[in-house]
Each structure stands twice: as structure tokens, then as C-alpha cells.
Amino acid sequence: MGLLIPIVLVLISPSLGWAPPLPLRTSPTTSQTETPPPASEEEPITATDEEIRKPLEEKVARATLPAAHTPAKHGETDGESWVAQRTMVEDYCGWGWIKKEKESWRQARWIALEGTREVCPLPHTYLPRPEDDKNYQYRFYGSFAPYRAYEPQADVWVDVFILKGFMSLGPAKEEIRRSPPAQASSGVNRFAERGANVR
Q1: How many domains are there within the chain?
Q2: Alpha-carbon distance 77 to 58, whole Å?
Q3: CATH code of 104's domain
Q4: Which residues of the chain have pLDDT under 70?
Q5: pLDDT in the model for residue 191
Q6: What is the DSSP string of the chain?
Q7: Would you say residue 58 lies in a domain?
């Protein structure tokens, strides 16, 4: 009896599992028994007759907006100010460098930038891509947060600047050739060597 069941399954499986494929709706070869659809008096819809949705004017304007033409002034621009330069570092979080007017870029601090949609969004949000304002300078108005942000790639904490307003200063004269903060103990697989940071 134990041998009979596999034999029966082998014999009937072709009739169960090998059904012919269903014909496609737009099959190039149609059988002669099929009747064509009744002809209608309406003309067929062509690609030129289809409704084409135009993009919103605001999105078109933002997509063609050069980084130097982000709003020249936005948010609250009164009080103490800093000069900031957008810097992009591959595989590293953070926004860029910030310093006081008379300080050199060697005294600048690497920051994570925090904006508020109602008060002042971040400058690069006006551009199609966040990296479009790389190496642009701004005058920032706001203050440093009482907390810091964690940078997981380098395993460091960086200062957070809360943006209240900014003025665009245009492209920087030169790129800041300075690495953001990093810890020497950070390696590629550093976190794989130890367990989770649970306390």
C-alpha cells in the first residue's frame, strides 16, 4: 500500500499540475474563433489625446533653482549670527561648519542642523537635492541646543545648532579641507566586536 500512493501521484500529477497557460489580453496571435469587438463610432484614444498632468509651478521653480538663489533671507534674522558653510562628507552625518564672524575656519565647529518648519526650514530643503548647496555659505541666526547629536559612523557626539533664520551668502571662495570630528578607536567593524549598548 505504501508503494501504491507514490505511483498514483506520479500518474495523475501531469493532469493536475500542467494546465495550459492562459492567453494574454494583448496576445499578438488570436484564434480565428474569437470575434472582434463591435466597431464603435468613437475614434480610438491615442497617446496625444490622453490627459497629461502638468507639474505644479512651484515644483518646476524649485527644480530649476540654483543653490545660490535659495531665499536670500528667511526666518528671524535679528540678534547674534554665525557664518556657516555647507560641507558634505561621504558616509558621515552632520550639516557642516559654523564659526563666529572674526574666527578662522580652524576654530569652526562641526554641527548637526535642526530647523523648524513653521519658523525656518533648513536651507537645502528649497533645492531638488540636499547636496545642491555643497560649499555654499550662510549667515545663521539661532543658538546651540543644550543637547548633542550622535554620529554613528565615527561614534562621536556633535553640537546641534537650532536654526531660527538664515541669509544666503552664495558660494564659498574655497572648500574647507578639514575632517569632521572622529574618534581614533572607531573602525569599520568596531561595533561587531562588542555587544549592544544596553544599560
Answers
A1: 1
A2: 25
A3: 2.40.50
A4: 1-2, 8-23, 25-69, 183-199
A5: 43
A6: -TTHHHHHHHHHHHHHH-PPPPPPTT-SS--TTSPPPPP-SSPPPPTTTS--PPPPHHHHHHHT--GGGS-SEEE---S-EEEEEE---TT----EEEE-TTS-GGG-EEEEEE-BTTTB--GGGGSSSGGGGTTEEEEEEEEEEEEEEEETTTTEEEEEEEEEEEEEEEE-SS----PPP--TT--TTGGGGS-----
A7: no
Backbone angles phi, psi at 4, to 5 degrees: -70, -35
The residue range of the domain holding 167 is 72-171
Given the C-alpha cell 533664520, which residue does it identify? Answer: 165
Please indicate, yes or no, if residue 156 is contained in any of the structural domains.
yes
pLDDT value, residue 13: 62
Q: Report the pLDDT value the prediction gives residue 143, as an integer from 0 to 100.
A: 94
pLDDT for 1 equals 61
Rounded Cα distance, 139 and 166, in Å: 5
Q: Give a yes or no: residue 117 inside a domain.
A: yes
* Within-domain flag for 182: no
Residue 78 one-letter amino acid: D
pTM (predicted TM-score): 0.57
pLDDT attached to residue 190: 42
β-pairing, 81-86 vs 136-151, is antiparallel
